[in-house]
Amino acid sequence: MKYKSLGNTGLYVSELTLGTMTFDQEGGSYSAIMGATGQELATKMVNLALDAGINIFDTANIYGSGESETMLGKALGDKRKNAIIATKLYNTMTTGPNDLGTSRLAIMREVEASLKRLGTDYIDLYQVHNFDITTPLEETLRALDDLVRQGKVRYIGLSNFSAWQIAKADGLAKLMGTEKFCSVQAYYSLVGRELEREIIPASMDLGLGTLIVSPLAAGFLSGKYTRNGETTGRRAIFEYPPVEKEQGYNIVDTLKEIADRKNASVAQISLAWLLHKPGVTSVLIGARKEEQLIDNLGAADIVLSEEEMKQLDEVSAIKPEYPQYLPLMQRGQNLFGSFDQ
């Protein structure tokens, strides 16, 4: 397992993160879509991850209506000191007028609830799950800064922000002198490369780490979804994130060719491609079954050649949007030749 610093911090995280959205009890709020591990399997998965060198575990207050945090805390037990816990706030399980979002009131309430469920007195990485258009960003940043100063939170991150929102948050924190966000959590996969247009460049320019979610596009890149059809699995119930099917099947075909040559699974090659991409700090893997987790862990050992990366890049390429498709202009050049002529 390799480790990278999380943005411009001294915190080192494993290149794979264990996502715990499947940590729930049978019949729980997410179980119909995500499945439910139950506590015994959740604990086993946490131990497998730790043994493989994973040191960061991601959850959220909303996952399993809080059950995911509870089960993660129990699974870690006395191993808590060896783990980096990343959780999130914004969404809630209730519908009061002040429940949703990242107001000071909501932040202070949700952090206490998460600490209690996790069975810990501090959160390593506290992430804003969405951009709150109804709360001034200054209010959110000051409240998060207070949590860091109180020792309840060590680092802060954001999730599902657009590039301009990331830049605004970073600039405001510098202007105000508050704690800055150190990481971006966002969706990125071979069938979802939009992140490369703005968010990855913004993150790299500002020195933020990236935590990649849904790297297999909710199972589409596991290899079981083909032109012949697949009637089981999460995507049969809920097709999210969206996939352009024809290109997606071409990508899966290419993945299978490479996987066969390397005696690997399609899922492992999909994950390995992300681990080779610039700007990626850590990739979240999650599983409903023990064998899925074991297979995903194997991605850390796969090395893709330049030619294999080129194959995957080409088959999954997205069309550039304005202004990315404009010719690169540099000093001494114009569209018709050198300015010096």
TrEMBL record:
UniProt-recorded name of the protein: Oxidoreductase
Cellular component, GO annotation: cytosol
Keyword Oxidoreductase carried by entry: yes
Keywords per UniProt: Oxidoreductase
Keyword hit for Oxidoreductase: yes
Any Pfam family the entry gives: Aldo_ket_red
A molecular-function term among this protein's GO annotations: oxidoreductase activity
Domain spans labelled NADP-dependent oxidoreductase: 15-316
UniProt xrefs under InterPro entries: AKR, AKR_Detox_Biosynth, Aldo/ket_reductase_CS, NAD(P)_OxRdtase_dom_sf, NADP_OxRdtase_dom
